[in-house]
């Protein structure tokens, strides 16, 4: 098992968002379309990258989409995942003639799309191509993060507790259901209340948060040991995968003189020319 390669993939550095030009906005991608926008002098959004031609659905997706509504009506209690499973069963029993017809429709639309996409790519500037590349990287990173979060939840990773301020907000925040502006104002008021909170009250929240953090760290140690024993190194924090630092390196970081266990190896001296008689 190539654990090191998997660990490097999981802990790859995040994309630096500072490379994006200031003022550019990304729209939410949907159904193969994407477009970006920038703010003009009037403050309104204008597209900087044209919409990409929509790629046609393949044969199976085309079939599944055509029967999804009927399956949902016949199975009102079924979840979207269950509907997809039912569609897969229907696909397996579909006759070859119907599959061939769907394949022909797909190929016709695919040929049209290839022409439109080639024209679309030829009209893009270098800046627009770079912007599309960055957006694709961000979408991929977002997908990886969602998959990681789902995986860690399934593996039962302990949930990190709230700090003192967030504990104060959670205990003093009214019932949900406020508008975005009202909620923003509410959080602002909570921040002001926290600053005016007596030292004794703030200390209580701090001690509660410290106790919860200690419990969390103990649970994380047990859980990560369990993950390492099961070779699930991808789920463990990077610092716990590495070997512990040596005493010498720890002392050097603190400003001390590192202890050298072995004697230093002397560098060979350069040969000198023989003395003339």
From TrEMBL:
Annotated HMG box domain residues: 53-121, 158-224
Key words, A-Z: Coiled coil, DNA-binding, Nucleus
GO biological process: regulation of transcription by RNA polymerase II
Pfam name, any one: HMG_box
CC annotations in GO: nucleus
Keyword check for Coiled coil: yes
Coiled-coil positions: 117-147, 206-233
Top-level taxon: Eukaryota
UniProt xrefs under Gene3D superfamilies: High mobility group box domain
CDD domains reported in the protein's UniProt record: HMG-box_ABF2_IXR1-like_rpt2
PROSITE patterns: HMG_BOX_2
Protein name (database record): HMG box domain-containing protein
Species name: Anopheles quadriannulatus (Mosquito)
């Amino acid at each position: 098992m190539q654990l090191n390669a998997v660990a490097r993939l999981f802990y790859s550095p995040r994309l630096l968002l500072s490379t994006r030009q200031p003022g550019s906005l990304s729209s939410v991608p949907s159904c193969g379309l994407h477009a970006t926008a920038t703010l003009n002098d009037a403050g309104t959004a204008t597209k900087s990258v044209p919409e990409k031609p929509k790629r046609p659905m393949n044969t199976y997706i085309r079939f599944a989409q055509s029967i999804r509504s009927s399956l949902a009506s016949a199975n009102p209690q079924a979840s979207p995942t269950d509907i997809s499973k039912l569609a897969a069963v229907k696909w397996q029993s579909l006759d070859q003639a119907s599959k061939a017809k769907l394949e022909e429709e797909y190929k016709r639309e695919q040929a049209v799309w290839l022409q439109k996409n080639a024209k679309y790519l030829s009209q893009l500037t270098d800046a627009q191509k770079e912007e599309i590349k960055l957006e694709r990287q961000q979408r991929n990173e977002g997908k990886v993060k969602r998959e990681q979060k789902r995986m860690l939840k399934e593996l039962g990773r302990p949930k990190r507790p709230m700090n003192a301020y967030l504990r104060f907000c959670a205990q003093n925040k009214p019932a949900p259901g406020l508008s975005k502006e009202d909620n923003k104002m509410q959080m602002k008021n909570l921040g002001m209340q926290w600053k005016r909170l007596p030292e004794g009250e703030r200390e209580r929240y701090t001690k509660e948060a410290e106790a919860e953090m200690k419990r969390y760290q103990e649970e994380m140690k047990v859980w990560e040991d369990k993950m390492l024993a099961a070779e699930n190194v991808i789920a463990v924090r990077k610092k716990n995968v590495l070997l512990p630092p040596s005493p010498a390196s720890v002392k050097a970081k603190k400003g001390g003189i590192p202890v050298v266990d072995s004697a230093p190896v002397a560098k060979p001296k350069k040969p000198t020319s023989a003395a003339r008689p």
